[in-house]
Structure formats: structure tokens, C-alpha cells
Design goal:
By secondary structure, this protein is mostly helical. The protein is built from 5 helices and 2 strands. Helices cover 43% and strands 10% of the residues. It has a two-stranded antiparallel ribbon. Helix 4 packs across helix 5.
Length: 147
Amino acid sequence: MRRHGIANLPGGIATGVLLMVAAVAFADDGRSLTSPASEEGITALIRDLSDPVYEKRQFATRRLCAIGMPAAAALRAVAEGNDVETSLRAGAVLSALASLMFAGVDVRLSLSSDRIAWNESPDLHITVVNNSPYPARVPFEKGPAGQ
């Protein structure tokens, strides 16, 4: 019996989904997690990743998750830095974003025939349409056409 739900997702995807849900669900201090972000706002949030106040670090982490890919370049820059707290938190946000490989992407599957005999090998066509302004990761290797 096949079960559905977050518990049955691969670990990285489940972690990413949980972080994104947490980013939106726990904005209980009155600050908006979903408002548009400016470059200066992202820089300030990255600074807050190492703030002495735990709640401020948590909010910055959640807000950067909610911002998503627009914050990725700045997060990558600090993920390799010397500040342990900042690099760990930046790495966690980047991992969550990487796990959401098909965010904003439509995937369509089609077969070469409506009916397939048991001894036939149908052609499977995969069409990936990226509706986001960011590169989408495809979780399989691209082979030459016709193979």
C-alpha cells in the first residue's frame, strides 16, 4: 500500500518543505515574512544570522527561507565565511532551497502511444517548463535524444 504525505518524501525534500512551512507559519512576532525583499533587506537579514538574540537569528533564517532564490547569491557568499553561526544558518537555508528543485516548474509526461502492449517499449517524453526566473534543477541526467 502506497502512503502519501510528507513523511514519505525523500529526506531533503521533506526538510525543505518543513523549513518553508516553518518560515511562513511562525511569524508570530509581527514582522512580515512574506513581504518583498530588497538587496539591503537581504544584507541586513544575513547580518542578523549571527545576532546575539536568538529570536532575531531565527526570524532572519525564516525570512531568508521565505525570500527564497533572490537571497541565494548572498547566502552562498556567507556560507563559506568564518562566522560559524552565519555559515551554518546560511548553509541550512541553501540546503532547503536546493531541495525544492521543482519550485515554479511544470513537468509533463507523455507517451508515444495511447495503448502499449506488454512486449512494447514506449517512448516517454518529459517536458519541463520553468516558469520562474531562476534555474531549475532536474533530478536526472540528460541523455542524447533517441536513446
